[in-house]
Amino acid sequence: MPKSNVKDYDKEAEDLLKVIYSNILKLKELHGMSQNKLSNLSSVHISTINEIEQDFIRDMRVTTLVKFAKAFDVKFAALLVNQKIRAADK
To answer: What tens-digit pLDDT sequence spans the chain (90 residues)?
Structure first.
């Protein structure tokens, strides 16, 4: 069970965050990015990226998600849906 820093987490919100985190990790791998490179490209602190990789579920600001989407050159909505991410989706 993933760790969470939010008490009484709404199941639907937690499920959505799992999808978002999974998509971020898939895109990071697809682009061959290290934590440092992703942090530099997105201006998101490396500790946040580490928490995502450690499956630490927490609230995330929309602005942070937009930064990730820009770093991966994908539409914001691509982070929100459960889909297979392939090289053609870049």
So the answer is: 555 555 555 788 888 888 999 999 999 999 999 999 999 999 999 999 999 999 887 788 999 999 999 999 999 999 999 877 665 444
Task: Find the distance separating the first CA and the last CA of the chain, reported in whole Å.
Answer: 30
Beta strands per DSSP E along the chain: 3-4, 56-57
Domain 29-83 superfamily per CATH: lambda repressor-like DNA-binding domains (1.10.260.40)
| pTM score | 0.81
31 is written with which tokens?
């682009």
